[in-house]
Write a structure and sequence with these properties.
By secondary structure, the protein is of the alpha/beta class. Helices cover about 40% and strands about 25% of the residues. The chain is built from four helices and seven strands; from the N terminus they run E-E-E-H-E-E-H-E-H-E-H.
Length: about 120
């Protein structure tokens, strides 16, 4: 499913697509664009996509990555899907709070919590 040069680990669990980042630092503009395109392809592959993005490996996230997350959220919403974020490092979560993005996303402490939250 994932491309050879993918920056993501993608797997399916029932009707839910789980996405994990390979890189600890999501800062490089080209990588962020590639990640956004790859996740967009996953979203467009089905109607009503259920997407769970895990940040368990991520230590740093750039503002461009946050912008890409907003775009992903909008694409999921436009396809009547559901998006969950999980395993966000406390320092990164602080950025979500400062930017008020924590109100825009459904954020869960663990992947299991996020999986249980899907309808």
């Amino acid at each position: 499913m994932a491309q050879a040069d993918s920056r993501l680990r993608v797997r399916r669990q029932d009707s839910i697509t789980l996405v994990e980042f390979i890189d600890r630092n999501i800062l490089d503009e080209a990588n962020i664009q590639s990640i956004g395109e790859e996740i967009s392809t996953l979203i467009e592959a089905e109607s009503g996509p259920k997407l769970l993005i895990s940040f368990s490996n991520v230590d740093h996230l750039s503002s461009a990555a946050l912008g890409t997350l907003i775009t992903i959220r909008n694409k999921v919403r436009d396809r009547s899907g559901q998006l969950r974020l999980a395993n966000i490092d406390p320092q990164i979560y602080e950025v979500f709070v400062i930017t008020r993005l924590h109100k825009m996303f459904s954020i869960h402490e663990t992947t299991d919590d996020a999986l249980k939250s899907f309808e």
